[in-house]
């Protein structure tokens, strides 16, 4: 398999206002530092790391919403120019347009692609069915439960057929049952469509359950600490894979890796907050 | 001010509440009773000499006066004159305020530069400018409509500016990630997201338009409800004066009702668009 | 829209339609002139009702209307503040039947000018006839400027004037016309003085045009003044009942949703001179007064800037008498 | 209307923004320049004959007039009269509106019964009632203060009612679970939770109090800024009239500023109390 | 050990407005049905069940916020009269009073208990330290992260020393890392204070990790389906207990029990929603 995405020694530095100082000082702040890895075509990569380590920043860079301070990001061997419909982003909060119905939201990206109305509706219906929400076409976001909203957001990203799907903790705000259902559904969709997926999460269980490979990041400034090839392959989706010993073992490995990082980052935050 | 209504209505159960199915009818009945009691007091108080009957005639006499004006067609003429002025001033304020607000909100520099000037104008009581408008624009329709525009413009303008500036960043990022350009972003995201807040401004302007117009019509007009009131007062036609006041109250109610209906329609995608 | 007619010879009117403000429930002399046919072929175009004299002449000055009318003192003030206006004919005043009285309650301690100090006088407009007459009265009775300042003027809507007096919200009420008759019917009030007591019969207010309008429309203005003068003479010389009936007819025909009640209280025109001819004294009094009180600088304005009688058809006749 | 401001301010970065430390000073400078330009136009337009100098005198002459009034002490007297009336009417409206609103909001029956009556009054333009107030209460201070009360009462009353009715049910349950009785619940939960919404009403009333007062002072007053404007207009002291208008604008600005400051203090526990 | 809490055949029926019917019909709705179990003094019971099965209703009954339709609930052998300070509730959403600081919130229950100011502050400080938030005394809720808010809510419930702690999915809205930290902390506090705790959760992991016994409920109308004695006893809090085979086994047992219930309840909901 060829590389779909390549991070070449990417760093991102923010200049932020220093709110502690009266004199409106500016501070440099390294969010991610020398990130270097690649993702293969059709791969499902999960990315875990402590809060604030730069996971979302990494995704923004990939989405073309911000530019790296140094280094380069390549997609299909070409550097990223800006946002584009070849990559679909699912944001942590369901970023649905509240004034559009479920259908309208799914069609949104298609409109930007200038696909004719009729075809648009057809495609949208297809993806609505794919995420199991046929019959909810005309609901507004506020009339949908959290899980449904996130499924619409996923359908929207799938609808304009991006090669790469970037997902930033999409299931974080959901309750456990819905989350597990959606995880299973996502795997089904991935198997059906063979997209390249980068999936950010806080949850170790989630990372192990979903990822072919799992990238563990260090705390701030974030770099890739380790890449783990996930030993669990048999994906019988209706089985309680999470209760198998293999799962427990993979989970434990990542737990250990993350533990030091989380402790480190929490100590850092507590120091900052009481200051 | 992007106001998202997050709260829950607390209906503290009254002791011994009546079965629900009659509730609606009961409510109407009770409210009618309250109204009747008020009208009865209005009827009786002057007749019993509690207030001076000359200056506060009983309701029946006011109703008679109202009927007289209505039958003669005078009331209709005055009403029409007022509502036309109010609507044209209000409409022009909308036509000016919204586009201007969108532009100012969109360009941070414009907002920065104009902010103090707008604040100053907003806090200038419109009626203080009535003499100026008369001096500059004369006593005809122009000055009356101009003062209505002035009074209506600032709530609309400032709400529009705020609406644009407070569009959820997440939605903007989301739209950008789908490859929308600046123009499309404006039409497809900024504009629809701003509508509810803009409408708050429009509703505020609605009542301002009537308030100010009444005052303007009291000075130098030949028709309109404000003129009716001041004219009847000067001519000791006190019941007719009250009839004019009642008509203005009704006009206010109708305008408010219309605006609330439109608002509900336009923001049906919002959780609680409260009136 | 004004219709311009070319030429400046006699009978060729530069403007045929004249915009003006009326008065609620009353008939003004140009309207009477139109009714009597004196004004033809000129026409009056009603654009609304005036709220006060000062507002009326201000509207004339800014071109909202073609002519306006106000108390002579107000006219002087506006001309002094830079608006080029000229009075052409007098249109109201006081005589023994038509006058403005300064009334107090029967048991009020106010007996003469000195008693006004520290009291509140209610009237329906400021800066006009009522205020100037009051100040002139106080001045004539030896009050200093300082003392005059201590008399407070309160603007009261006409309908409330009597009520305010009876409720002790004001100490003195200026009442004229219908308001006075109605209040006197109820009784319990007495007059301290009136403008008629002070000046005798005199004309107090005039119609004005802008100088520019007069320059551009000499024939129109001349016709207007002629017609108005004749209407005034008609009202001065016709029996009261007949005048009232004519006024009633006009009010009913013009259909401005008015009552004809006020008009029943008409007693006389109050205009002192034939055809509204303006006497120097009628402006001089106020000019002196404004100069003394410091509101105008001495010799800032001369009488010639203020008025002209040359369009008045009775000028020749009256000049001879003088 | 319990308005919770949930939105994020989008500061769209202007190209070539200047280093931050100068930002504040720069802003002030730019705003001053805008003001100066406006004043310059005001000065020049009449002098060039673009507008009639008699009725629209250049700024310098207005400033002179303002200074004359200020030095003679007249302006102070008028200002004082207006602010006293405005504050007493406004204050009384607060004293009546808040307790009444709390009671009405607390008892659903009261709210149900009175709602249509309140709606009717709220939509009755206060100035339409000016003649009634004068007829009933005379031309003295009473009627002027009464009309200010009327204009200020309804925004405060209706906001208070809404505030009480929209207190978060969760907070009420939480307090009840800690054994609070009705009285304590009212003082410790309902009241503090309602303050921000009530204050929105108070701020709306603030500008209403000035607007209506100006109109009231134009009729039947012997001092006050409204009287000053109409008096100077009648006496053709046009610069002094503009001086009065400017003073009213300043009064409005000051009152608004004061209210916003108090509001900020009282709702410092809120995320974004926006002015 | 004696029974602290006894549910004796408790059912709860709601009468709800039938929004489908036009005629404002009323519908009876059984939320929980014949619930019968008891909790020992000092026990830690976790309660799992599908969404909408009546878990919160059960807790409300226990808290005295609603009354059972039939059956009886005893605490220390006596029937519940209403809310009381012998039971502390931690609600799913952090029900902190936004206008009170962290300290003020913790003191709230103590005020109701009429404990003098000085003592109150002392107690509050103690519990603030217990949840690891010393130094955050004067923060307002909006200045705290989600995890911190929930810790304050727990401290508040602990502060007035209730015998029983009722917790309704307290960690549901938190991110995974914070949740695990708080779970560990809760166990520490429980071991220290020996309170009786009923803990509602959606998460199987959480139920297994925390509970001495685990009650599994059926879907609507809810009853207790099974009580499971949790085999995991060794509580070395710094060990990754979640990755042990014992944990996986217990997890699996509950997963199987819940699976049929969840499927049943989801089918029910989907039917309802598309209706
Ligand atoms: N636009 C920005 N300006 C300044 N600092 C930023 C900006 N965006 C992010 N940061 C900072 O960069 C760091 C990394 O942020 P990021 O959102 O990528 O973290 P994360 O790993 O996604 O955290 P979480 O798991 O909490 O979502 C944080 O400390 C954040 O405060
Ligand atoms: N006050 C009420 N009036 C009417 N129905 C209610 C009321 N409270 C709860 N219900 C209904 O009772 C059922 C049980 O609700 P409850 O909140 O106890 O469920 P739950 O198990 O806590 O669900 P979740 O896990 O989603 O929080 C739900 O269907 C709910 O709609
Ligand atoms: Mg993130
Ligand atoms: Mg629940």
From TrEMBL, chains A, E:
<dbReference type="Pfam" id="PF00005">
    <property type="entry name" value="ABC_tran"/>
</dbReference>
<keyword id="KW-0813">Transport</keyword>
<dbReference type="InterPro" id="IPR003593">
    <property type="entry name" value="AAA+_ATPase"/>
</dbReference>
<protein>
    <submittedName>
        <fullName>ABC transporter ATP-binding protein</fullName>
    </submittedName>
</protein>
<dbReference type="InterPro" id="IPR027417">
    <property type="entry name" value="P-loop_NTPase"/>
</dbReference>
<dbReference type="InterPro" id="IPR017871">
    <property type="entry name" value="ABC_transporter-like_CS"/>
</dbReference>
<dbReference type="InterPro" id="IPR003439">
    <property type="entry name" value="ABC_transporter-like_ATP-bd"/>
</dbReference>
<dbReference type="GO" id="GO:0005524">
    <property type="term" value="F:ATP binding"/>
</dbReference>
<feature type="domain" description="ABC transporter">
    <location>
        <begin position="16"/>
        <end position="244"/>
    </location>
</feature>
<keyword id="KW-0547">Nucleotide-binding</keyword>
<dbReference type="InterPro" id="IPR050166">
    <property type="entry name" value="ABC_transporter_ATP-bind"/>
</dbReference>
<keyword id="KW-1278">Translocase</keyword>
<keyword id="KW-0067">ATP-binding</keyword>
UniProtKB/TrEMBL annotation, chains B, D:
<feature type="transmembrane region" description="Helical">
    <location>
        <begin position="209"/>
        <end position="229"/>
    </location>
</feature>
<keyword id="KW-1003">Cell membrane</keyword>
<feature type="transmembrane region" description="Helical">
    <location>
        <begin position="185"/>
        <end position="202"/>
    </location>
</feature>
<feature type="transmembrane region" description="Helical">
    <location>
        <begin position="241"/>
        <end position="260"/>
    </location>
</feature>
<keyword id="KW-0472">Membrane</keyword>
<dbReference type="Pfam" id="PF00528">
    <property type="entry name" value="BPD_transp_1"/>
</dbReference>
<dbReference type="InterPro" id="IPR000515">
    <property type="entry name" value="MetI-like"/>
</dbReference>
<feature type="domain" description="ABC transmembrane type-1">
    <location>
        <begin position="79"/>
        <end position="259"/>
    </location>
</feature>
<keyword id="KW-0812">Transmembrane</keyword>
<feature type="transmembrane region" description="Helical">
    <location>
        <begin position="87"/>
        <end position="108"/>
    </location>
</feature>
<dbReference type="InterPro" id="IPR035906">
    <property type="entry name" value="MetI-like_sf"/>
</dbReference>
<feature type="transmembrane region" description="Helical">
    <location>
        <begin position="145"/>
        <end position="165"/>
    </location>
</feature>
<protein>
    <submittedName>
        <fullName>ABC transporter permease</fullName>
    </submittedName>
</protein>
<feature type="transmembrane region" description="Helical">
    <location>
        <begin position="120"/>
        <end position="138"/>
    </location>
</feature>
<keyword id="KW-0813">Transport</keyword>
<comment type="similarity">
    <text>Belongs to the binding-protein-dependent transport system permease family.</text>
</comment>
<keyword id="KW-1133">Transmembrane helix</keyword>
